Amino acid sequence: MKEIALGILASLFFAVTFILNHSMELEGGSWLWSASLRYFFMLPFLLVIVLSRKGWQPLTKEMRAQPTKWLLWSFVGFVLFYGPLTYAAAFGPGWIVSGTWQFTIVAGVLLAPLFITVVGDKAIRQRIPVISLLISTVILVGILLIQIPQAQSVSFETLMLGILPVIVAAFAYPLGNRKMMEVCGGRLDTYQRVLGMTIASLPAWIVLAVYALFTVGLPSGFQVFQSLIVGISSGVIATVLFFIATDRVRDNQGKLAAVEATQSTEVLFVIVGEMVLLSVPLPTPVALIGIGVIIIGMLLHSYHTMQLSKTVEKKEAELQH
């Protein structure tokens, strides 16, 4: 349950991303700057943390040993995650984007067969946890309900431009995160891993920033300030909290799915934040029902995780006797 509590706390800080990205879009800021500035601002904070913990040398050793994997999975986990999310912010309020983002819970469950666990001399391909998938489907129903009012008020093209990038991000984030956990093999702590992924993704962010400079010009001071807040809140605090939680349960697909399911609480934080800060109206009754369904799905995940933990503890106690 500690991991689930960490996941919910991370969701609170992640919510800042959706609120401020929508705010920057309303002010006319380009998504190119919103995306790249976040990671530029994350870098110095993470560097200070890792250097103060004397973790720089182990990190550089790991990155030099497997540079291709670091570049690839950092691009997937950070660039293909955050670029599409900021792009989607142009097509609706943050609560719609964050609601659709909950598809990552279903995506995380479906990714299980891409990973192999070594038990003794045997390599065993992980299976999709059926119960977790069924619970995640409940969350997916909630996401569809959220989109119904939006679908009635915008064109199909606009709806797809707001949904499809988020679905790409929903698969990319857990895939990049899990693959990097596999690459690191527990040899690095969470701060080192997030810093390493930030550094490895910098080439892509620099390209985006240069493109933005020549197409939309320099970002406004307002966008720079808000990107700084996003970088600290979502990029450093939320990412580290979430990665700590997933690191702790990385060997159990059911528990991992439950931790990833805590992201569903972002929707609540975003709704309240946008109503207070941006005067966004309360979602329609159908959308609120969808949000309720998502929360029920998250609670079911938590309950299932508790049952899994009890089963494991019981088996361990029997083996000891």
TrEMBL record:
Q: Where are the transmembrane segments?
A: 31-50, 70-89, 95-116, 128-148, 154-173, 194-218, 224-245, 257-280, 286-306
- Can you name this protein? Putative multidrug resistance efflux transporter
One of this protein's Pfam families, by short name?
Answer: EmrE
Q: Does the keyword Transmembrane helix apply?
A: yes
Keywords attached to this entry:
Membrane, Transmembrane, Transmembrane helix
